[in-house]
Specification:
By secondary structure, the chain is of the alpha+beta class. The protein has one domain: Helix Hairpins (Orthogonal Bundle), CATH 1.10.287. Strand 1 and strand 2 form a beta hairpin. Helix 1 runs antiparallel to helix 3. The radius of gyration is 34 Å and the shape is rod-shaped.
């Protein structure tokens, strides 16, 4: 820790620091609360998407045995592009899922089994939901990282910076008060000696 200069200039500097810290702390509290609220909403959305994906998989169970036939179902679908936009939440740029562009390759309706049509529809929905789940997970990670940083800053200001500044201001005020009292005492002594000398 650096040595404190016990001067009026240093007192003014530390009072300004204290004022700035006290002004900045409520902003950090608001940011932390906003991040916590958005994280909670993203978690709810992520649960919804995961549940939808699970529901679609369960709907596939009755005809999943048919997927054992080699029809090249995995070659019929692919994600071409995941479209996202960027949203700023409490100073953090996070991705927002817009849509997943799924490419469906043409297949011969006469050579493929009838169930492939239904499988392609369900599989494309699952792929879209998985893409949304991936983007929501990225969004959640970004927000949780920012929440960690913000919480650390709140603790730094609350538990370190503000108490340090208060203590420094107190020490300087005590020192300057002692100096002033001492100067007044010396002034009285000098005045008394001047009167005695006359």
């Amino acid at each position: 820790m650096q040595k404190i200069k016990l001067t009026k200039t240093e007192l003014r500097k530390h009072k300004n620091h204290l004022k700035r810290f006290n002004r900045y702390l409520p902003i950090l509290y608001i940011k932390k609360q906003q991040l916590q609220n958005v994280i909670e909403m993203v978690k709810i959305e992520l649960k919804r998407v995961t549940a939808e994906c699970s529901k679609l998989r369960e709907e596939m169970i009755p005809w999943i045995g048919l997927l054992g036939e080699e029809v090249g179902l995995s070659d019929l679908l692919s994600i071409k592009k995941i479209e996202t936009r960027v949203e700023n939440i409490a100073g953090v740029d996070v991705p927002v899922f817009v849509t997943a562009h799924i490419e469906r390759r043409e297949y011969d309706l006469f050579l493929t089994p009838l169930w492939v049509d239904s499988a392609v529809v369900v599989m494309s929905e699952i792929l879209s939901l998985q893409a949304e789940e991936f983007i929501l997970s990225e969004r959640l990670c970004s927000l949780e990282r920012e929440l960690t940083v913000t919480s650390q800053r709140v603790n730094l200001f609350e538990k370190v910076k503000i108490p340090e500044a208060k203590e420094t201001v107190r020490k300087i005020l005590i020192f300057l008060g002692d100096q002033q009292t001492s100067a007044m005492g010396w002034a009285r002594i000098a005045k008394k000696k001047l009167k005695e000398a006359e």
